[in-house]
User: Which sequence fits this backbone?
């Protein structure tokens, strides 16, 4: 094969050492040194090989096996900046590059019967192997080793940006001493071995060797790095890929299948072919709802083509939302890009869940309404919410339902009576409340529907005007400044009120004229209800109400007089 | 004279990659074409430049507000401290939402070379040598083309002024390429420097949404750094509502700088966790702590969220982010996670040491446990787990009087469960994991300290609270900068945790306020249930005590019946959990402190006759305790976003009780007053001292 291309007079034999050291024994290396040397095609900085791959004359010369290809006239500083970004700045999770390797393997195995990817994990070493379409030299130089150069089609392939391979080199930049990468690949007619080691913490310090190793088929990638803890890697792979559709590819980690669905027990899997607004075909989406995860790492999350994108711990039900591969993804693969396709899937999810809840009881439908609000705010960036909210309201909550915040629910139920619960939707979650708020009538509408409210006046004027209501006099005596306390008498339209006769609103404290504790307080319950309801309505915090009542109120025995 | 120049965005990238950027910029139109053609001929992948451009524009930001963040970031980088940055939106010609967005800064402006070599070429920027700037990836501006395919930049430097127009090539997004046209502006005569970027948006923006998104991405920029206005309204005011709660070093030796944990609530601060760098949002997260083994951290953080608090972790510039700036770069991610955990622990300890506002506010049981542990540590005590038998047997333990209130309430959960003996119920106030967490917090190395050894200089180390307090008690605690003595530990200043400790130490040093209650030492007596009381020696007032217990039991029965709860065992005790506590709840039921003067007054007033206020007060007291009991037996789902708040629970119990009474479903417990008063000579309860000596073995009472 002639002499290898070793640019810039690099001290090649010395740099060849670390590349071998990863797995070969010294003895084997010595005996094989002669033969290996002849098949060596390139040895030197990675970015020089990338530069040669980018420059067509150099690329063709390399493919022909010339030892002195023309010098590519590329801007090395710029190229290194690009490589630095792609190597070290793609992903937020340190182990994400391993997932990229698995996805590349799954893409290579595509089209075969029962495609599968074998992964072996031990401390410091991960091996990923597939028997799919491997690579010849041209592909290695013009696809694998060129960032952004990929023939993959979003939607059909899992690979997308042509940079997954570079992210693996990030292990080398992060911890050069322990790193080595070994790719063996072949398309059946050729076979190549690519090894990368790192001598420092930047892309410029990555050294690559390229060898002809004779015809083979399939691809095997070995990554060695001290940063690869076997337990962490297994856990992360199972977490990221557990929802990957098994018909697409089976991932076997140390012999055990990680995407056989065993990680989640129970629940419903809904599959949906989502029509795009433009009408260009239908995209397959999958929604898993309910059930229980067998591992703590699996929580509600969004997925993209079966690969986990973003976990969401705060949603109480287990929701796994798998977006079709054709929906755009950020390069960091940590978020799905909002847009028409995203919104179409979100809308399909909401309506599908509303279907599912059609036969649930009132409480069940309210729970689904809350869940959808949370999912919309926390997992779906509110995409399509404005479009579907009205329909969801009609199907899940009914027209008479009012949105009440959980802080106000008890006060309202106490004031309006427990029957008012059927008119209230009380989302426990801040996010559900935020989503639903523009689409539902609120507390004010509820009060207007239930009560006839007199104009507001000061507490002292009400006490003067209605001496027949004994409770008002009690309140006037209690209030710090009855002249400046705005109150309004309220009368129930149909229902009797609840047991707590006062309610604080933005304008005034509502007092029910039809409550016994207001009209004629007699027993301790009336006194207690009137007092605590008024104090709370006046804005007193419960701890202060307690202190006032339990610790500070004068007792009959102490003052020698019974409070009326 | 400089003429207008124009070309395609991809050409700028292509000629840069192929090392001919300088020739290209110097060439005339024909020359440019020739250079581009030569580069394309020699490229292996013909459309690589377009691909890179496409990625940079369309595959970076995860939301529509991402490009806005990038533009504001560029404006911030260009602006001097405290400058004003204006974002304005105006309706397009067709109406229906705003279609034009302008971001204007009064920074130094950009030269012609900067525009063509840095602004428009991904991966390359001059910000490399600007240490305050974080726009390091050189992709920010281009990502704006995702939301606005047509962009106009007007920029004025001290010496030149230019206009740059970018327009899409093609029918609809994603556009394969864009044209650029750069023209010099003649009217440059001492005009103020600065840059204005005008975007013609692809999709109309709602004005309120724009403001909300701007708040979400730059709402936390320090007001001293810049004041950012959206349509005339200042939007980075929420920053003022945050206070710095803790700092923690990032990385083994803090090689990545220090992380600030900020906390606050109010307008513009949604209750969640935010990672920021220079106040710019990196990513919002719902849960601070995702990993395993952090259950209590997560609970606590969620409780803070439920109470409306936002937590913000501000990263220093030394922490690298990923390219889309949507996460910490993988290499630093682990170190940042660990720093967030450490900062959170510091914050919890700081709160326990000083103002205790948050832990009380969120009504998490950790608050009270920490309180007690910190007080004990300040007093130099350390609760030692007593023998298991002792811990289990609550009522008859002969050594009980010698225990501090702290150890009696904490001992049980610290212990392994007893093998047999009496059935052990965990204390409600402090489940084992909470106590362990709180205890470990006092032993966690969270204080930045240094010591000075003669001849060896300063040695810095992280020390736990207990070690710092030991030094304090030995008179060896110093602030940084104070003269050293052998063995002295110096606390680094400027850390909220250190400040809180010094405040607490000052507070403890101050003379104790005179006791509110005119009573001397606590008179402790373990819990007495009905059965123990029945077999007790006859004292004056024992009948009244029995009657009082009847009424307490009936109130509890009414509450339980109204709320469908199991009635609790009612007992009485004296000052067992401290003289200030009126009643106490744990798994063994509700116990009332009959040594408390107020409790005695309430019980005697109720027994003496119709006192609705006293009766209502007793009912309210039992409602409070019952809320504790019912919360302890209701385990909220681990994923519940809002912990069931205590007072909400109490409100619910109160409403159910009143409804039950009004509807006749529950018998009014006050009707039992008459029954309880029967054959009652006097309503006076036995004196605490008499009761204590009658109920405890002679040698201990002595």
Assistant:
């Amino acid at each position: 094969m002639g002499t290898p291309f070793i640019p810039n007079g690099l001290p090649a034999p010395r740099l060849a050492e670390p590349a071998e050291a990863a797995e070969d024994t010294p003895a084997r290396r010595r005996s094989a040194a002669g033969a290996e040397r002849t098949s060596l095609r390139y040895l030197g900085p990675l970015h020089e090989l990338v530069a040669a791959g980018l420059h067509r004359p150099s690329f063709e010369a390399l493919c022909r096996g010339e030892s002195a290809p023309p010098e590519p006239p590329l801007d090395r500083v710029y190229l290194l900046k690009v490589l630095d970004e792609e190597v070290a700045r793609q992903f937020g999770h340190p182990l994400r590059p391993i997932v990229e390797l698995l996805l590349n393997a799954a893409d290579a195995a595509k089209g075969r019967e029962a495609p599968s990817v074998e992964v072996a994990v031990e401390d410091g070493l991960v091996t990923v192997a597939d028997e799919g379409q491997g690579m010849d030299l041209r592909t290695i130089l013009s696809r694998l080793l060129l960032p952004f150069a990929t023939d993959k089609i979003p939607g059909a392939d899992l690979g997308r940006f042509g940079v997954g391979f570079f992210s693996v080199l990030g292990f080398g930049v992060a911890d050069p001493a322990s790193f080595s990468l070994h790719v063996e690949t072949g398309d059946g007619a050729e076979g190549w071995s690519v090894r990368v080691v790192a001598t420092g913490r930047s892309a410029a310090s990555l050294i690559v060797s390229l060898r002809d190793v004779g015809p083979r088929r399939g691809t095997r990638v070995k990554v060695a790095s001290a940063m690869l803890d076997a337990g962490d890697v297994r856990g992360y792979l199972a977490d990221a890929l557990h929802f990957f559709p098994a018909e697409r590819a089976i991932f076997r980690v140390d012999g055990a299948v990680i995407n056989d669905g065993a990680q989640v027990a129970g629940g419903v899997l809904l599959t949906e072919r989502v029509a795009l607004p433009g009408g260009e075909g239908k995209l397959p989406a999958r929604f898993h709802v309910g059930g229980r995860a067998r591992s703590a790492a699996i929580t509600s999350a969004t997925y993209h083509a079966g690969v986990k994108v973003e976990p969401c711990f705060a949603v109480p039900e287990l929701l796994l939302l798998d977006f079709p591969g054709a929906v755009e993804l950020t390069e960091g693969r940590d978020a799905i890009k909002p847009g028409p396709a995203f919104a179409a899937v979100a809308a399909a999810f909401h309506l599908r869940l509303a279907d599912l809840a059609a036969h649930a009881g009132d409480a069940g439908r309210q729970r689904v309404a809350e869940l959808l609000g949370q999912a919309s705010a926390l997992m779906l960036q509110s995409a399509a919410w404005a479009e579907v909210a009205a329909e969801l309201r009609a199907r899940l909550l009914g027209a008479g339902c009012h949105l009440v915040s959980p802080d106000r629910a008890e006060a309202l139920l106490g004031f309006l009576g427990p029957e008012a619960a059927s008119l209230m939707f009380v989302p426990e979650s801040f996010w559900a409340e935020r989503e639903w708020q523009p689409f539902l009538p609120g507390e004010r509408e509820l009060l207007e529907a239930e009560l006839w409210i007199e104009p507001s006046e000061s507490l002292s004027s009400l006490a003067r005007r209605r001496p027949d209501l004994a409770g008002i006099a009690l309140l006037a005596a209690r209030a710090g400044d009855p002249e400046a306390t705005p109150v309004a008498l309220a009368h129930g339209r149909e229902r009797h009120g609840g047991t707590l006769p006062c309610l604080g609103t933005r304008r005034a404290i509502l007092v029910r004229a039809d409550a016994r504790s207001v009209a004629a307080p007699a027993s301790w319950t009336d006194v207690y209800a009137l007092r605590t309801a008024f104090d709370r309505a006046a804005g007193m915090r419960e701890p202060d109400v307690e202190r006032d009542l339990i610790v500070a109120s004068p007792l009959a025995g102490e003052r020698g007089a019974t409070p009326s | 004279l400089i003429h207008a120049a124009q070309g395609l965005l991809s050409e700028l990238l292509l000629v840069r990659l192929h090392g001919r950027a300088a020739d290209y910029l110097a060439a005339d139109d024909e020359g440019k074409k020739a250079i581009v053609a030569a580069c394309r001929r020699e490229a292996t992948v013909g459309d690589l430049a377009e691909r890179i451009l496409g990625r940079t524009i369309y595959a970076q930001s995860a939301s529509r507000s991402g490009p806005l963040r990038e533009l504001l970031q560029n404006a911030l980088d260009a602006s001097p401290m405290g400058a004003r940055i204006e974002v304005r939106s105006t309706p397009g010609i067709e109406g229906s939402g705003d279609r034009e967005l302008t971001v204007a800064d009064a920074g130094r402006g950009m030269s012609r070379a900067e525009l063509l070599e840095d602004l428009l070429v991904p991966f390359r920027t001059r910000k490399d040598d600007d240490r305050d700037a974080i726009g390091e990836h050189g992709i920010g501006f281009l990502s704006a083309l995702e939301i606005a395919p047509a962009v106009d930049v007007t920029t004025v430097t001290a010496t030149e002024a230019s206009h740059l127009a970018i327009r899409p090539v093609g029918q609809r997004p994603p556009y394969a390429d864009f044209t650029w046209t750069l023209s010099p502006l003649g009217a440059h005569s001492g005009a103020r420097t600065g840059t204005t970027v005008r975007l013609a948006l692809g999709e109309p923006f709602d004005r309120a949404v724009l403001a909300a998104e701007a708040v979400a991405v730059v709402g936390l920029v320090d007001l001293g750094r810049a004041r950012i206005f959206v349509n005339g309204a200042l939007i980075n005011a929420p920053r003022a509502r945050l206070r710095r709660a803790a700092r923690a070093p990032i990385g083994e030796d803090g090689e990545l700088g220090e992380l600030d944990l900020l906390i606050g609530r109010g307008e513009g601060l949604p209750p969640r966790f935010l990672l920021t760098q220079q106040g710019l949002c990196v990513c919002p997260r719902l849960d601070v702590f995702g990993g395993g083994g952090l259950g209590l951290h997560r609970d606590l953080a969620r409780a803070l969220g439920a109470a409306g608090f936002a937590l913000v972790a501000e990263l220093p510039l030394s922490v690298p982010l990923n390219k889309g700036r949507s996460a910490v770069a993988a290499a630093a991610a682990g170190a940042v996670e660990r720093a967030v955990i450490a900062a959170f622990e510091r914050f919890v300890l700081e709160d326990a040491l000083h103002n205790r506002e948050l832990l009380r506010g969120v009504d998490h049981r950790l608050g009270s446990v920490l309180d007690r542990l910190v007080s004990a540590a300040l007093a130099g005590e350390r609760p030692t787990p007593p023998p298991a038998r002792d811990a289990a047997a609550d009522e008859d333990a002969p050594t009980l009087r010698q225990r501090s209130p702290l150890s009696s309430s904490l001992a049980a959960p610290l212990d392994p469960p007893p093998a047999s003996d009496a059935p052990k119920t965990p204390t409600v106030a402090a489940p084992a994991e909470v106590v362990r967490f709180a205890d470990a917090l006092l032993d966690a190395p969270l204080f930045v300290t240094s010591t000075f050894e003669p001849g060896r200089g300063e040695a810095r180390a992280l020390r736990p609270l207990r070690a710092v307090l030991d030094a304090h008690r030995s008179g060896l605690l110093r602030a940084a900068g104070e003269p050293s003595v052998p063995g002295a530990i110096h606390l680094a200043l400027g850390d909220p945790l250190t400040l809180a400790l010094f405040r607490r130490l000052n507070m403890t040093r101050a003379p104790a306020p005179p006791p509110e209650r005119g009573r001397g030492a606590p008179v402790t007596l373990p819990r007495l249930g009905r059965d123990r009381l029945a077999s007790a020696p006859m004292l004056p007032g024992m009948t009244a005590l029995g009657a009082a217990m009847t009424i307490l039991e009936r109130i509890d029965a009414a509450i339980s019946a109204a709320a469908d709860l199991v009635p609790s065992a009612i007992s009485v005790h004296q000052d067992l959990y401290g003289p200030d506590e009126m009643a106490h709840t744990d798994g063994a039921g509700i116990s009332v402190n009959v040594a408390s003067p107020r409790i005695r007054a309430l019980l005697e007033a109720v027994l003496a006759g119709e006192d609705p206020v006293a009766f209502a007060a007793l009912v309210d007291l039992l409602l409070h305790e019952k809320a504790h009991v019912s919360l302890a037996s209701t385990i909220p789902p681990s994923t519940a976003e809002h912990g069931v708040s205590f007072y909400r629970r109490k409100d619910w119990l109160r409403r159910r009780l009143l409804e039950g009474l009004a509807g006749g479903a529950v018998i009014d417990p006050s009707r039992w007053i008459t029954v309880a008063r029967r054959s009652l000579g006097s309503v006076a309860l036995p004196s605490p001292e008499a009761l204590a000596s009658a109920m405890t073995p002679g040698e201990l009472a002595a």
In short: The longest strand of chain A covers residues 180-187.
